[in-house]
Amino acid sequence: MDGDGRSPSPVTLEEVARRAGVSPSTVSRILNGTARVRESKRKAVERAIAELDYRPNVIARGLARGRTMSVGVITQDIASPFYNETLKGIEDSVAKVGYAPLFVSGHGTAAKEAERMALLMARRVDGVIVLTGMIDDPSLLSHAQRLPIVVTGRTLQGPNLVSIHLDNEQAGYDATRHLLELGHNRIAHIAGPVLNVDAQERLAGYRRALTDAGVPVDERLIAFGDFHETGGLLALNQLLETRINFTALFVANDQMAYGARLALYRKGIRVPEDVSLIGFDDLPSSLYTTPPLTTVRQPAYDLGKVAGEAILRLIDGQSPSLPELPLQIIVRESTQRRRGQSFG
């Protein structure tokens, strides 16, 4: 506040230029990273910015360049513990350059995601990140004709669009292989939603691992859930009702593994003494389950960070560089070498 109680006027670009002894256009170009100037001149501008506590109006700068400085993000469920980490990675990456993310949930349906896409376009976001999603590939390619799009969980490529694909099929294979190497050959699987791409790939990995090991795939050992705790509980009860023998269980995500673990506990079935249990995601709480959950670690935060950086590069008309994001087995106490008879 000044002497009469009013807030001081914000420092202008012109004042920074005068303090640094350069033109306002030079200050502007240094701020947006396009200037090629002597190091001494750059340091003078940076010093003037610090001394005057200059805070550039990123919204005004964006509008001057025809941008809203916002990025739309369509996720399946904002409340999901897995997507929380991914959204944080997106937010951290885009905020560094003054962008604000606008998060919306598609709730796992193509129709709802199409509504959300239309909403984001009406808001004139500069680009959209689709986290896996149910929107079909032709629709995504069509939307990319109007604005940059980054989509995860696909191998889709096209003008103004890039996809970031994690190898869920190989990770599903590795998870099942871990159980096979512990001596289990009666391995049940709780898959995710039938139409979900990640769930389909993890199920395919499960099938391939059994086949490669010479273990017949017993369709009665496969149940489907919805990626939520209740879905895992109900799917496990369904498996138990069949009275089919199994000594190990691969669950397509940690949340369903928590529900399955509860169902096993209620039936007096011990983990891992009676049934070895492995999940998928490595949510923070998986370290604190009883027993701590063996799982497949997904780089959720890094996925969001890479997606955020990719959409910014597309917005600037550049080709993103996409690093490999490996998935790995995290072995804890919920799996052990097979002992005794099959449960069932």
Overview of this structure, please?
With 344 residues, the chain is α/β, with parallel strands linked by helices. It folds into three domains: 13-56, 434 Repressor (Amino-terminal Domain) (Orthogonal Bundle); 68-166 and 300-323, Rossmann fold (3-Layer(aba) Sandwich), CATH 3.40.50; 168-298, Rossmann fold. The protein has twelve helices and eleven strands. It has helices at residues 13-20, 24-31, 39-52, 58-64, 81-95, 110-122, 137-143, 168-181, 197-212, 229-241, 254-266, 300-315, and strands at 70-75, 100-105, 127-130, 149-152, 161-164, 187-191, 222-224, 248-251, 276-278, 295-297, 328-330. The strands form three sheets. The protein has a five-stranded parallel β-sheet, sandwiched between helices. A four-stranded parallel β-sheet has the order 7-6-8-9, sandwiched between helices. Helix 1 (13-20) packs across helix 2 (24-31) and helix 5 (81-95) packs parallel to helix 12. The chain starts with 12 loop residues before the first helix and ends in a 14-residue tail after the last strand. The mean pLDDT is 88.
What's this, in brief?
The chain is α/β, with parallel strands linked by helices and 344 residues long. It has helices at 13-20, 24-31, 39-52, 58-64, 81-95, 110-122, 137-143, 168-181, 197-212, 229-241, 254-266, 300-315; strands at residues 70-75, 100-105, 127-130, 149-152, 161-164, 187-191, 222-224, 248-251, 276-278, 295-297, 328-330.
Topology:
Blueprint: H1 13-20, H2 24-31, H3 39-52, H4 58-64, E1 70-75, H5 81-95, E2 100-105, H6 110-122, E3 127-130, H7 137-143, E4 149-152, E5 161-164, H8 168-181, E6 187-191, H9 197-212, E7 222-224, H10 229-241, E8 248-251, H11 254-266, E9 276-278, E10 295-297, H12 300-315, E11 328-330
Parallel strand pairs: 1-2, 1-3, 3-4, 4-5, 6-7, 6-8, 8-9
Antiparallel strand pairs: 10-11
